[in-house]
Write a structure and sequence with these properties.
There is one protein chain. This protein is mainly alpha-helical and 158 residues long. It contains five helices and two strands, in the order H-H-H-H-H-E-E. The chain folds into two domains: 117 residues, Flagellar protein FliS (Four Helix Bundle (Hemerythrin (Met), subunit A)), CATH 1.20.120; 32 residues, no CATH class. Helices cover 65% and strands 8% of the residues. It has a two-stranded antiparallel ribbon with strand order 1-2. Strand 1 and strand 2 form a beta hairpin. It is globular, with a radius of gyration of 18 Å. The mean pLDDT is 81.
Amino acid sequence: MTKEQIQTYTLRITQAGKTEIIIILYDMILEDIKEAENCYRNSDYNGFKKACNHITRCTADLVEALDFEYDISYSLMSLYLYVNKEITAAVIKNNSLSLKNAEFVIKNIREAFVKVCEQDDSGPVMKNAQTVYAGLTYGKKNLAEDLRDQGSSRGFRV
């Protein structure tokens, strides 16, 4: 992942609600799958392995977020384990074909969570984070975001 992508995901996380954070994890996995496929095409095995390892860390976060009071968590758990199995197979076999299977599963789950997110009105998980105003500052060649100072007692509260 590039620095810009990391900053974008960080910004999204600070402004996200509970279900939106899950969508962000799915987006990160899909981005890592693209990166792994690109590295595989360019014969960059270390980059391929690094992207695959990040996918398994993201799926571990998804597993940790499951609430087993709900039956659907068991189904999601088996899907996450399947994705991990496919990613592990890709690394062991040094083959990108298994990435397509993982991508298919993640895209479908993501679509469902987007619909769930539309109903979630819980607000951002991180309290007291900086507010970002897009478009208030700009330079000759770019439009930037402006983070306004929100006081000396500002800090993240989750």
